[in-house]
Amino acid sequence: MPDIIHAFFVNASPGRVFEMLSRVEGMNRQWTKEASGEPKLDAEFRLYFGPGYDWRTRVTRYVPGSEFELQMTEAHVDWAKSQVGCRLTPAVREKRACFLYHNGWPEANEHWRVSCYCWAMYLRVLRRNVEHGESVPYEKRLDVKYRQVQTRIGAR
Q1: Please, what is the Cα angle at 45 between 41 and 48, to 5 degrees?
Q2: With helix as H, strand as E and coil as C, how does the chain read?
């Protein structure tokens, strides 16, 4: 089975990065349109991306501040048995290494290839948010240019 693995460095506190990856408020700032759930072992999460994309998951790994994993339970057939998770490492020279994985794909099909790209874009939104306070509306997250500055949190 093919997997998706992204490793990136971010200059932010582990709590801030972990919140973006494991809490509803953070997920809604960088990945989902609307999520609900609580980050604790065996808890259920709802991940809503729009009509036809109202998915359910279960928390299968939760180590506060360092590891979080969701097992997809109701989703698109390609995602249905996959796991999405992250692992944070201690900071080195003020930067923290983050590993995001999406394991359990049935095959390296077109949906897998698109998801590889989408995860990279979502992680870029996450990094810009925690490092610079930038926010990107859900509908524009996959169109963000490298140097494009979006609305800063709290700025009008």
Answers
A1: 160
A2: CCCEEEEEEECCCHHHHHHHHHCHHHHHHHCCCEEEECCCCCCEEEEEEECCEEEEEEEEEEECCCEEEEEEEECCCCCCCCEEEEEEEEEECCEEEEEEEEECCCCCCHHHHHHHHHHHHHHHHHHHHHHHCEECCHHHHHHCCCCCCCEECCCC
Burial class (CB in 10 A: 0-12, 13-18, 19+), 11: middle
pTM: 0.87
- Would you say how long the chain is, in residues? 156
Q: At what angle do helices 14-22 and 110-132 cross, to 10 degrees?
A: 140
Per-residue model confidence as pLDDT tens digits over 31-66 = 999 999 999 999 999 999 999 999 999 999 999 999
The domains located in the chain, with CATH, are: 4-148 (3.30.530.20)
